[in-house]
Design brief:
With 294 residues, the protein is mainly alpha-helical. The chain is 77% helix and 1% strand. A two-stranded antiparallel ribbon has the order 1-2. A hairpin with a 5-residue loop joins strand 1 and strand 2. Helix 3 packs antiparallel against helix 10. It is globular and about 75 Å long. The chain starts with a helix and ends with a helix.
């Protein structure tokens, strides 16, 4: 019976494993191999193997500047999404019209990604909605609202906020709100009850939301390309430039490896935190069971 159940588990997992192997593992292995090859004269790669791409990247201050800009823009956008998404998710989970509000959160997904970016360009452009309004009320010159890191952060927050709200809502909805009432009955204020009872209980949703926002923001290409300009260029734009303009495939592959390492590090930190929390909860449960037995 055990062998049959094991075989059934393998057969069920085979499509997913095959999909991940073909569309995730093999492409990344190709990227790793390309990063150690020599750039061809007219693009592509050729032998011999070399560390030239990594040496060029590590020795170029411009690459580090773009890398740092990518990380801090992604971090700020993630923090803003968390700050906005947490109270929004709490409001939706405790509202009687939660289905309506959830629909409103999901509605932006019905519109194409690029169309939404162009919508922000219409709003923030030199002749856009905001500047047209400001000029109409007496301002002499339009403001430069486009092609800044702040604009990139604004559009990233708009684009990825639903990815923060949905896992937070899912975690809060499963929370037993009687625990908050019990904490307040014991003398805690509502804000104290939320921070000391609710927040620890929904750490899984918070971690999932952070991962779902930070990693896509880290790899953003279209948003900084359309609304960021040179001041808001990020790692994805650098990879595309190396691949299409400089036609240097090893360099673009090496930069992609940096992105992969940052993303993997974030995932490992998240998994480590979850493991520590699970171990702590297990220890607390065991201590409680021993006390009950005594």
């Amino acid at each position: 019976m055990k062998s049959r159940s094991g075989l059934a588990a393998i057969l069920v997992s085979m499509p997913g494993l095959l999909w991940l192997t073909v569309f995730f593992l093999i492409p990344y292995l190709i990227i790793i191999a390309y990063s150690f090859l020599t750039a061809g004269i007219y693009g592509g790669v050729e032998l011999p193997f070399t560390l030239e791409a990594y040496a060029r990247m590590l020795g170029n201050a411009g690459y580090w500047q773009i890398l740092w800009r990518t990380v801090w823009i992604s971090l700020i956008a993630t923090v803003i999404c968390l700050g906005v998404g947490l109270p929004m998710s709490y409001f939706i989970a405790t509202s009687r019209k939660k289905n309506l509000y959830l629909t409103l959160v999901i509605v932006p997904f019905w519109t194409n990604f690029l169309v939404r970016i162009f919508g922000w360009m219409v709003i923030l452009g030199r002749n856009g909605v905001i500047n047209t309004f400001l000029l109409s009320i007496g301002f002499e010159e339009p403001f430069s609202l486009m092609y800044r890191p702040g604009t990139v952060i604004l559009v990233i927050v708009y684009m990825y906020l639903p990815y923060m709200v949905l896992p937070l809502y899912s975690a809060i909805e499963k929370f037993d709100f009687k625990l908050l009432e019990a904490a307040m009955d014991l003398g805690a204020k509502r804000t104290q009850a939320i921070w000391k009872v609710l927040i620890p209980a929904i750490k899984g949703g918070i971690g999932a939301g952070i991962i779902l926002v930070f990693i896509p923001a880290l790899g953003s290409y279209a948003i900084p390309d359309l609304v960021g300009g040179t001041q808001g260029a990020m790692l994805g734009n650098l990879i595309a430039r190396q691949l299409t303009v400089a036609r240097n495939w090893p360099s673009s592959s090496a930069i992609s490896m940096i992105f992969l390492l940052i993303s993997t590090f974030g995932l490992l930190v998240y998994l480590r935190i979850n493991k520590v929390q699970h171990k702590r909860r297990t220890q607390i449960r065991e201590v409680y069971m021993r006390e009950e037995e005594v």
